[in-house]
Predict the structure of Cysteinyl-tRNA synthetase.
Amino acid sequence: MLRLFETRTGQVVGVRPGPLKLYVQQPDDLRVCLTADLLRRLAPRLRRRTLTTAAHDVDHTPWNIPPLHGGDPLPGSLSVGNVTSATEVAVAEWTAPPGDPLAVRLLLLSVHYRAEARIGPESLAGAESRLDAWRRDIARWGTTTARPLHQPTADRAIAALCEDLDAPAALAVLDDLAASDLEPGAKFETAVHLDLVFGLDLVRDLGKY
């Protein structure tokens, strides 16, 4: 079950079932849009469809966020933005760095959405290295005999995201996967499955190694 922080009560509570309706209040804020995108990507894993509108049109496609289209909030929408209310996902402030858009995406996912993110050159370089290492591993695993994904590993990452979008804990599952004794083919399928949620283009280097 998806659980998110409710600002009115100060508690993490379950999100009511049914279609997940999102309204992006600050479309120009990349972190706000990334938080909404993570919810949108997570929903199919929970057998929920999403309907998303935004305060105005915006295009953040370099960060693997599909274009958002302006429109009024749908009835029962969960608002995402730098605001405080019982019906909103309140995203903390952050400092925008230059650099590889997907390394920036990884950096933002590596800090819980409710925590302030102060991002600098050193942390960006670390994210780039982490991303490169995962891509190298996945490219090598992709050359081995195919195996089914390891469902317990995938479930652990999804469970972390269901608990107030704990993306840092979910990303740590990828690190654990790389260090595990699972067969490379299973590692490959599991990483590809999870990257549909993370949106980091982890298969980009297939064929290079």
The longest strand covers residues 20-24. The chain has six helices and eight strands.
